[in-house]
Amino acid sequence: MKIAIVILNWNGQKLLEQFLPSVVDFSSKEATIYIADNASTDSSIKYVRSSFPSIKIVENKINGGYAKGYNDALKSIDADIYCLLNSDVEVTQNWLKPIIDIFKNEKNTAIIQPKLLDFKNKTKFEYAGAAGGFIDLFGYPFCRGRVFNHLETDKGQFNDVKEIFWASGACLFIRAKVYHQLEGFDEDYFAHQEEIDLCWRTQNIGYKIKYVGSSLVYHVGGATLQQANPHKTFLNFRNSLLNVVKNVPKKWFLFVIFSRLLLDGIAGIKFMIELRPIHTWAIIKAHYSFYKNLNRFLKKRKKLLKKEGYNLHTSIVWQYFALGRKKFHQLK
After folding, report:
1. Nearest 10 degrees: CA dihedral of 73, 292, 249, 188?
2. How far apart are CA 84 and CA 183, in angstroms?
3. What is the pTM of this model?
4. Which end of the chain is less packed: N or C, by CB atoms within 10 Å?
5. In angstroms, rounded to a whole number, what is the distance separating the alpha carbons of residues 2 and 4?
6. What 3 state SS string does 135-201 have?
7. Distance CA 213, CA 97 (A)
8. CATH of 3-219, one of 3.90.550.10, 3.90.780.10, 3.10.50.40, 3.40.640.10
């Protein structure tokens, strides 16, 4: 089984200097390491070539973001399993073995995520993926170990192997044949939540997604866009709506989409009350972009196979804000 660890880079020399050594130390015997460079203008590629000559480099012609960056790079990488790894991730000893074992023994498992803890506070789960992702009825994502901005302390409560709905793009393993069958990420997303769309489409063609708690990595998070950045708000709100349009089954579609637009409006009012109008404006821009792209995504929707067994019936917004349930085990 050929494993390719592919790290997407854009002007990230400082991150590569800090985090690439752990990847080399704990992965080079089991996997081939690649840097997929998104047309960087710094010295990051020169640094990799001089410091780690065994690492292979794929140079993309433009910076197409996370989605296009990986789509372009993976066309030229021959492997059975791709590990899409952020440049701000520190891996740990033996992190690959439990994941490789699952892929070898479970042919119907196509995507796997390890445990993601916060590099800056290693007792806490990390925002981007924690212990595996889920979505609620209205398409809002949440994780075991992270509901909205509430992060749980890692006490071994998620040291299991668990089927999940989506795996974090910070560290996502995927069978190469499935990635190419689905034609990779949707490049219209540019960045943020494109991995949720990919995972949704993966399940729709009959594969499973797993979380493996015995594999551990530490993620800085926000190295490209900080959580408080309004552009991140824009991408998350717009792309979440696009996920709903593409993937929610017909019987739920109108109810979910109109409910989401209403809930997003309430979120915009909440930002105003919190004196963060720049994020309200980001939601307005997200909705404008959503309507602008709606017809094109409805055409994409017609081409996709969708599972009718859409049983994600909880509202994470209601449980978190109305009922005060902030930990995964409290959710009903």
Report:
1. 0
2. 15
3. 0.93
4. C
5. 7
6. ECCCCCEEECCEECCEECECCCCCCCEEECCECCCCEEEEEHHHHHHCCCCCHHHCCCCHHHHHHHH
7. 12
8. 3.90.550.10
pLDDT at 223: 47
Token look-up 């404008």 returns 288
Backbone angles phi, psi at 98, to 5 degrees: -65, -30
Beta partners for residue 151, in sequence order: 146
Domain limits, the chain: 3-219, 230-330
16-68 pLDDT per residue, tens: 999 999 999 999 999 999 999 999 999 999 999 999 999 999 999 999 999 99
Give residue-wise pLDDT tens across range 74-113.
999 999 999 999 999 999 999 999 999 999 999 999 999 9
Bridge-based pairing state of the strands 109-118 and 208-219: parallel
Q: Which residues of the chain have pLDDT under 70?
A: 222-227, 306-313
Phi, psi (rounded to 5 degrees) for 171 = -155, 95
Return the structure tokens found at 4.
């390719």
Distance of CA 42 to the CA centre of its chain: 26
DSSP string, 192-245: SSHHHHHHHHHHHTT-EEEEEEEEEEEE---SSS-TT-HHHHHHHHHHHHHHHH
Cα–Cα distance, 284 to 80 (Å, whole number): 42
